[in-house]
Write a structure and sequence with these properties.
- Helices cover 66% and strands 12% of the residues.
- With 137 residues, it is mostly helical.
- Strand 1 and strand 2 (44-51) form a beta hairpin.
- Helix 1 runs antiparallel to helix 3 (61-81).
- The protein starts with a helix and ends with a helix.
Length: 137
Amino acid sequence: MFRLKSAITIAGLSHLSTMIAGLILLFIPLFHGTDVLNNDSGITQIVITKQTIFETNNPNALIMLLFPWVITGIVMFTAIMSDPIKGEQQRIRWRWKSYGWACTLVLIIFITLTISSIGWLYVPTLLLLITYCIVNK
């Protein structure tokens, strides 16, 4: 029973860390943007500014922020649903656990594809999910 409660706690912490990473990307300007200013006298100025993810990518960034949040939400749900079941339904418990492991693999692929921009913010979440997979084996 202690192993199950620790697995749920770790899955909850991974979900919380994903929310924190998303809020950091929403409100803290981390990306460089450029603006070109033209004067009437023919002088062109390039201004480099720091921008948030929405200023850089418009509403398309919402998908990049929601995807890891949904993945860790599924892992947290599967951690709750893999409560010890006695008897014939032991296969169902294994199936719930495998959903959590598959979501961890999906997050590994997501971080690998986005490591140059936002993926590095989700590395603590990935470490928590790997810990969840080890505890909930």
